[in-house]
Each structure stands twice: as C-alpha cells, then as structure tokens.
Design brief:
This protein has about 325 residues and is an alpha/beta fold. The protein has helices spanning about 15-20, 40, 60-65, 85-90, 105-120, 120-130, 160-170, 185-190, 195-200, 220-225, 245-255, 295-310, and strands at about 5-10, 25-30, 50-55, 70-75, 95, 150-155, 175, 190-195, 205-210, 235, 260, 280-285. It folds into 2 domains: about 5-100 and about 295-325, Rossmann fold, CATH 3.40.50; about 105-285, Rossmann fold (3-Layer(aba) Sandwich). Helix content is about 30%, strand content about 15%. The strands form 2 sheets. Strands 8-7-6-9-10-11-12 form a 7-stranded parallel β-sheet, sandwiched between helices. The protein has a 5-stranded parallel β-sheet with strand order 2-1-3-4-5. Strand 3, helix 3 (about 60-65) and strand 4 form a beta-alpha-beta unit. The relative contact order is 0.14.
Length: about 325
Amino acid sequence: MGEKAVVLMTHELPEEWQGDTLNEYQVVLAEGGQKGITARLRDRLADASGIFCLLDDPIPAEILHNAPKLKVVSNLAAGVDNIDLDACTELGIPVGHTPRVLTDGTADLTLALLLSVARQLPKAAEDARRGRWTSWNPTGWLGADLKDSTAGIIGLGKIGYAVAQRLSGFGPRLIFTSKHPKPEQARILNAQQVSLDELLRTSDFICLHTALTAETRGMIDKSAFQIMKNSSILINAARGPVVNTDDLVKALETGQIRAAGLDVTDPEPLPPDHPLFRLENCLITPHIGSATHQTRRSMAEIALRNLVAGLTGSPLPHCANPEVYQST
C-alpha cells in the first residue's frame, strides 16, 4: 500500500462532523490559535495533496506555487476572497466552497441585527441590567419603525433575496440594487430595482449582501455616507472590506447616519480597543451569520465532500472556479 496523501487543515473540526471521512489520508493540523498556513503546515507544503481552510485563512499564490502536488483547496465558506482564485485556476487547482447552505442562517442573522439596532435592544438590555430601568418612560429607548419605511438591499443574490422575503412581512417599501436587471424577483417581492445612489439617498435601512470584488471593496465610504439619510441604519452581513471602516467610524460619531449593525468588519477580527466598540450606536457580532448547529455542520460536510472529490480526481460538487476543468 502506498503512502497516504497529505491533507493540510488550518482548523480542527468536531469529530462528529468529520467522522471517518479523512481516515484514508494523512492529516496535518495547524497549530491552534493561528490563521492561514502556519509553520507546521508550511513544512509539509511540498507533500500536500489538499488544503482545507477557513474564510479568514489567506491562501496566496506564494503558498500555491510551493505545493507542487496540490490537487484541491477546500474552503469552509461560501466566498473565496481569501484564496488567490486566479492562481489556482492557472495551476489547474479546483477550489471548493459551500454556497447556498448558509443562506437562511445569514438572512436570519441580518434581520436579528437590523431589529436589534433599530429598537436599541443592546442598550435597553444593558440599562435594565444596570438598574437604569426605574420606571416606564414614554421617551425611553425609542427605536425606528420598519413599517412604512424604505429598506434597501445592496446585492439581490440568494442571501439578499432571502432577506427581502423576511423584511416584506414587516411592511417596508423594498428597493434593491443588482448588477443585472431582475424584473421577476422585483415582481415577486413587490420591490423596485434602483441605482446605488438612489438606494443610499432614500433608504431608512440599508442591508449589504454583495460579494467582495475589486468594484465593491470600499464602496460604502465617505461619499456614500454623505448622501445617506442621517436617520439611516446600515447592516453589513456581507464582507467587512465592502465598508471603509475609518469612514464608518466618522459617520457614526458625527451622526451622519443613525446606527450600524456589523457581522463582518475590516480588519477581522476587530481589535478589542477599536473605536467602533466604544460607540453605542454600533452593534458588532463576530461573523456569526452561518453560526447555527445545522448550518455549520452542513458547511463542513460539503467542504469535506469537495476535498475528497479533489483528492480522488473527481469534479468538485461545489467548485468556485469551474473553468479549471475546461483546460484539462
């Protein structure tokens, strides 16, 4: 029997999720508490047939070029912006990802953030805990209504669409942006497709659900905040770098916008002493859009299937660069 193929894993999975899927392989696990291809993993790059990584593990071209036996990179995430996808394609390496399975979890979290920020739930709960709830106050902890408001969704992909479906029950006017015309989705949602400027200018609630690309990186910046309503609430459950963090801090500090709810940040994780954590009008969660038991387990199962498919020379069930198969 030949030597087992080497698989580099940047993070350990629960035993009940992994099962015996990787028993036929030699798994090299990264040192705990470190991101990316750690020193231990680098030592085995030359032997590696597969890499199993997370969304915040950078996999640059330099790593790929030092792994001559690499057959597959499997990412435990829907997005792959942490991986040099062009380099993988050039080298003939398929990249696995986990689309669709996290749609509902992320949409639910988006609504949870939006409602929590709109109704000032963190502040109200903290005030109650600290004894500041002394009587019923007609002007205490006043929030924003969703009914009869305008809710704008930037990026009407699967998650954006799921958010729009959930929002519709609260009675806002729905508007959205998309790279391509989506008349059928607009009809079903009773929504209107508009330009980015119009959405920013007229929305009371703005939900970001666009992929991180060269075009969307930093798209919500000083100029965007300047045309938003002072009463607007920004929710980001997409990718942190879609928003310019320094400009967001200034917008929140100066009242240029009312509040923000962030499940993603730039940088990520955000340092505990970052100015955003000091602002009462900013609620931050640690990238938990997909953090339900079933969603994360399903993501792991898909990522493992992608990994094994690549190791055995089969097409990946969910491949982020399918063009890699056209050149073989």
